[in-house]
Write a structure and sequence with these properties.
single chain; 277 residues; mainly alpha; 0% strand
Length: 277
C-alpha cells in the first residue's frame, strides 16, 4: 500500500531528478577495492561546479587546512578518500534536486547531512559498512523533496507539526498513506540502487515491525531521530529513549557511549552552505 502511494509522486512529476553522472560513478567506486584517491579526484574534476564546491569545503574551518588548498589533488591529500567522496556525493545529490516550496533548502540539507553523519557513527557501533550508511543517511529524506513538488502545502504542514524527534513518519503516513522513506525507496529503485539498500529505505519506517528486520533500516531510523534532536536542541539519549526505546533495547545500544561519540563529532553539518554553493 505504501509503495503504491509513493509511486504517485513519480506519475505527477515528469521531471524525475536524474542521477548525476559523477554521482553514479562515485557510487560504483564503493565496489572497487582498487580505486585510488587520485582517481576519485579526477572523477570530481570532470564537473567544474562540483570541483569548485569541493575546494570550498576543503578550505572550510571544519577541516582546518594548514595552507590554502588550490587543487583537487591537494584537497584529496588533505581530506582522504572517504571524506572527499562523501563531500562530493553530498554536493552532487543536493544539486540534483530543485528548490521546492514547503521546505527550507538549507535546513533540509543540513538535516540530511546530519542524518548521514549519525548513520556513519551508528554503523560503527553496530558494525555495518560506514560508507553505505553515510550514503543512505544522505538519501533518506530526498523522497520528501518529490512529495513537496506535488503537495507543497501538505509537506509544509508536516514540517510545522514535526516538533518531536521521529514524528515525521507518522505525520506523513496520516496525510499521504506513505512516508518520505517510501518515496526515497521508489527513487532509489528508479535510480537502480542495489536492492538491499532500496529495501532498507522502505523498512526504515518502522524497523521493528516490518519484515525482514534490517539493521541498516534501524540505523537510518535512529539517525533521523538524532538529526531531529540536534535540530531541536534535545539531548540525543533523551530523544532516542522517548522516540524509539524498543529499538534502542533491541540493539543493546550504550547511550552514554553513543552520546560521547556524537559530542566528539561536533557540528556535523557545518559544511552545508559550502555544499549548496
Amino acid at each position: 500500500m505504501s509503495a503504491q502511494a509513493a509511486e504517485k509522486f513519480f506519475h505527477k512529476n515528469a521531471a524525475l531528478p536524474a542521477m548525476p553522472e559523477v554521482a553514479s560513478r562515485l557510487l560504483k567506486s564503493f565496489d572497487d577495492d582498487n580505486i585510488s584517491l587520485a582517481a576519485i579526484a579526477e572523477l570530481v574534476g570532470k564537473d567544474s561546479t562540483l570541483a569548485a564546491k569541493v575546494l570550498r569545503l576543503a578550505n572550510s574551518a571544519r577541516y582546518s587546512p594548514s595552507h590554502q588548498i588550490a587543487s583537487l589533488q591537494d584537497a584529496a591529500a588533505a581530506l582522504g578518500m572517504d571524506t572527499l567522496r562523501n563531500l562530493a556525493l553530498g554536493a552532487c545529490l543536493a544539486g540534483a534536486f530543485p528548490v521546492v516550496k514547503g521546505l527550507d533548502r538549507t535546513r533540509f540539507w543540513r538535516h540530511s547531512v546530519s542524518t548521514a553523519a549519525y548513520a556513519r557513527i551508528l554503523s560503527n557501533v553496530v558494525r555495518l559498512d560506514a560508507d553505505t550508511a553515510y550514503l543512505a543517511g544522505l538519501m533518506l529524506r530526498t523522497g520528501q523533496l518529490l512529495m513537496a513538488m506535488t503537495e507543497p502545502e501538505l509537506v509544509a504542514d508536516v514540517e510545522a507539526h514535526a516538533d518531536e524527534p521521529g514524528s515525521r513518519y507518522s505525520l506523513e503516513q496520516h496525510r499521504f498513506d506513505c512516508t518520505h522513506a517510501d518515496v526515497t525507496a521508489s527513487l532509489a529503485s528508479h535510480w537502480h540502487f542495489p536492492a538491499p539498500l532500496t529495501e532498507s529505505f522502505r523498512l526504515a519506517n518502522n524497523p521493528l515491525e516490518l519484515r525482514p528486520f534490517s539493521l541498516m533500516a534501524a540505523v537510518l531510523h535512529l539517525a533521523e531521530v538524532l538529526a531531529d534532536a540536534a535540530e531541536q536542541k534535545i539531548k540525543p539519549s533523551d530523544a532516542l529513549q522517548t522516540a524509539v526505546p524498543d529499538l534502542v533495547e533491541h540493539l543493546h545500544l550504550d547511550l552514554d557511549y553513543l552520546e560521547a561519540k556524537i559530542a566528539a563529532a561536533g557540528d556535523v553539518a557545518s559544511d552545508v552552505d559550502s555544499m549548496l554553493g
